[in-house]
Give the backbone structure.
Amino acid sequence: MFPACRYSLQARRCIRALKAVRAEHVAPQVYSTRWSSSTVPRITTHYTVYPRDKDPRWEGMEMERFADEADVVIVGGGPAGLSAAIRLKQLANQHEKELRVCVVEKASQIGAHTLSGACLEPTALNELIPDWKERGAPLNTPVTEDKFAILTEKYRIPVPILPGLPMNNHGNYLVRLGHFVRWLGEQAEELGVELYPGYAAAEDVFERGMELHAKVTLFGEGCHGHLAKQLYKQFNLRENCEPQTYAIGLKELWVIDEKKWRPGRTEHSVGWPLNRNTYGGSFLYHLNEGEPLVALGFVVGLDYTNPYLSPFREFQRWKHHPSIMSTLEGGNRIAYGARALNEGGFQSIPKLTFPGGMLIGCSPGFMNVPKIKGTHTAMKSGMLAAETAFSKITDENLQSETAGLYIPEYKEALEKSWIWKELYAVRNIRPSFHNYFGLYGGMLYTGIFYWFLRGKEPWTLKHNGLDSAQLKPAKDCAPIEYPKPDGKISFDLLSSVALSGTNHEHDQPPHLTLKDDSVPVAQNLAIYDGPEQRFCPAGVYEYVPLETGDGMRLQINAQNCVHCKTCDIKDPSQNINWVVPEGSGGPAYNGM
């Protein structure tokens, strides 16, 4: 059970009342000693760090608690969650069973927080909804042409894509994933699934808000989910796997000159502007959406070592490569966004089941990294979770109508599925880049071992550990000088964030919380020259002078947050804890 953190009208009035209470009755000295220091400004006021029972702002305040029950609650209205919901209702209808399925989604609309390339492999969709074409699924652009290249600063070196290699996209579709997810939501509603957009699942144990009870809860929050982080600790789910490793993906949509438009073309590249030891690459997809539209993006592995690196500015610099700029010149940028990606693959899959729940989709991390695809595996994981859950829920020998169900059969079903085979085959490709030759050594490994053995080599390579532990001290690294944006091809950060539609209610406690307010200046700024102001793709973090003029403080512009979770992942002090804001807050992507 958990509360869905969307404030009702009464709750909003409570928030306003709390602000008045704080203004009239709360003096700085009533807070804990770490906040009363004259050298450490108070930053974090969120209840996850400063509990309500110790916070004078909540004294005497009561919030009405609503409770509801369902057979299955699904946290996250993305490809995995909606596929699970659809499959559950398909099975219920097939077996003539009554089954209440509820999906809670923190975005204001289904698909509004979804961001991906995206090149969709339709395997799982074919299984879930075989007649998707007749139902009007927005898969409008079959891939017609694949290109891959290594970039130098001025040149493009073509690399052939042989059949069977992960980057071969024959049979796939270029999509605007937010639109596809919205369509999945429509299919789910037709089957009787209850969708609740604008509700953020705040805690997996009850506190305040709307409380939902279910026999089974499926957690499909996406990469580095707020609840999944708690579940990993509560049930020790990562005990027997490697730490997850991540990347940040940044994306833009452009309307380009129609003469340069090649619907169905995919272009991928590695190399410049990143050095050989920084994992990353790019994509440029020509979409057939009724106008000359291209989706382009840049991915940087978050195991990079130089604290001066800015993924956003690397993305902007990449667009000035002659082979990219020639496509964009004369065009118009219409959208921007960013999100983190799971890159740990097979080695980093955690335990997936626990009493009362299961992890699905990108929450545990089923992305096929060399393919740069995770939607098909996310959907399939949701379908398998639905099938095993349905079997347990409808078991006539069920001992309790109210106890949360433990379903280890989900893991067994995954191991027998094509997901397991696919991820196992590519398990060594991402960690193979950790060598002296970096990118080139990894490509050589892929060409030899994957091409000939298809993942059957009798060893499994390891990752380098937590991404947060990879940064070197600033004194050991050379600052990176980035060119100024020209306002035509490259742009500044804040004008980019404006295109994401991001918004948060101003009167809520910032959802970017710090475990210790003193750490940013004492450690991150002192040792790493404040890397959070560079790895954040939305300008959330900045160091500004103290009002007294005798030092610096960290300023958190939480209203800018695009919910990518990069700060929670890459913070070298692991002091930032990203928690869900009010429901409906965050980006408002339209088909990203």
